[in-house]
Design goal:
Layout lengths: L5 E5 L5 E6 L3 H13 L1 H12 L3 H4 L2 E6 L6 E3 L2 E3 L1
Antiparallel strand pairs: 1-2, 1-3, 3-4, 4-5
Amino acid sequence: MSGDGEAKFWLEPGLQLARNYRYTRQQLKEIESLIEDHYNELVRAWKHHFGSRGDKHIQAWRLAVGTRPGTVHAGGVSMV
């Protein structure tokens, strides 16, 4: 997957694509699968990064797949 695209997903109340820029349907399915596999870890990282104010902002989570395989950048938090 290329790092040239960007996708924004809503995490709550349910996982949903909010916006897509330059990803194919297949790539979006792969990204969604990564989010599902690491959902709890992503939520914990978000709350750790933003503290108590993270609870009200967790609905929006911007994800971009990096140029290194297996790297996901999420809201300023890198997950490898």
